[in-house]
Amino acid sequence: MKILPVLTALVAATAVGLGVLTFTESPEEPTEWPELPPAIRDWENEGKFVEVYGHSMFVMDSAPAASPAAAIRSGRALAAAAAARSKLAARLVRRSGGGGDGSDEEEADEVEDGDLDAGGSLRDGDGGGVTLVLIHGFPSSSFDYRAVFPDLRRRFARVVAFDHVGFGLSDKPANYSYSLVEQAENVVELCRLLGVRRVAFVAHDMGDSVLTEILARRARAQLPPFLTISGVVFTNGGMVTSLINFRVSQSALLTPGVGNLFAMIARRLDTTGFVTRRQLAGLWGTKSTVDEGEIQHMWQLVRHKNGQRRMVQLIQYINDRWKFAEGRWLPAVASATEDNIPVLLLWGDSDPVSPMTIPQHVASLAPGAKLRVLQGRGHFTMIESPEEWFEEVEDFLEKSLHL
After folding, report:
1. 134 - beta bridge partners?
2. Cα–Cα distance measured from residue 191 to residue 133, given in angstroms and rounded to the nearest whole number
3. Is 360 exposed, middle or buried (0-12, 13-18, 19+ CB in 10 A)?
């Protein structure tokens, strides 16, 4: 744990207590936010918003937009989908209890027919092909994939990127768990709503852990039967919590009794996001040129919809990693390779936060996984070197999925 941010926050707290410094922050959250720049607005205009469990998530989907009639789900369709989910839940309960009357296979087919076609919203958009789903990390958004999205869209039948709840253009509610388990639940439900059946996931940073939770459900036969995972790509992220090199701000925000004060002071003193932007710039690799415009875009998306007020809540995903990585998530990666699901670990070797020891450790636990290294690249490989990133992802998925 870094000591500097803790001392800084404690000194500031003492100063506040003595009245040397005064920090007040209205409990009323702003309802208007700074205007987003044209590049982000263009990204937003090209995408759409999908309601997932009561929250609006931004989605970029390369599939043609559905007609208005198909996009509106009737009450009858909603009821059909709910009934199908109930059947699935009952089947999983019987399976976990070892009971059942031998009709599981028939019921699984019933769920697929009733759920996947309900309201016309769950028909496969790519003619039965594999949909590529991109999962972003902390504290950024789907905008990280902007440079590679056009090539992916040209090469693959369908590509979907989205912003987690709490990130980017999606809703950022004050009362929300922001756990990785819930974020994984959102991904699965989003796939259902978009009609994704066969999927290859590409994840980054926090998204790696969201993906391992999805793999854990697959390993336990708890993944809904409509979704088949055909391939997996992990990119730079803290999959092995004990090997992460935590940044100063992460350590401060995670410190009990200090995080909220540290975040409030940062909001008051660093209104331009200078500190956040400098820490992000420090994640670029030795061969990469820091793109100040991209970093500015990250900051603008962080503060959008009061996101800077959610940082203490969002960073708690690290605690989920401490709880679940070793016993639940990493074994699920090994299980995927044992079941012949292609797994790629694509890593920039100059990442100061998620060093090479992480993919090496994961590969040792899952011998079937492939490890590819981008020399001199840092944490954001898809931004630092989009051509290299795309070539590696394309080559792996072409060979693995026989495209």
Report:
1. 161, 202
2. 9
3. middle
